Input
Amino acid sequence: MSKELHQRMDAECRETQYLLRCAWSLGIEVPSDSRCWDDDDEMNIEEGGVSIDQLDFVRRRWLTEEGKARLAFLIEDAVIKKETAELDRRLKRVTINSQRISIFVAIGGVLVGLIGAAIAIFK
Output
């Protein structure tokens, strides 16, 4: 196997690992479709003389361009949903706090009115 091919496969594996870590941290199911994955099985068998039984021990797998695009889309979609959910939670907190403040202001207004009426009656 040429050095350039080996370096390209290493880069593909590193990029795949990065995308997989991102996906797992967001709880995304990684596509298992055969169009999304590529491996070095043929090279191991032809050039390395590895038997089919031993492939599981030396196999390197990485996402194809289609697989990377699909997983990147899923990651981006999950991040957007997570950010939207966080914004919704913050908006609910602001709304609840605004309602609480409104209630306190209304109660304060009623108390000021009652005190003013009591002063007017007892004067």
In short: The mean pLDDT is 86. The CA atoms of residues 91 and 97 lie 10 Å apart.
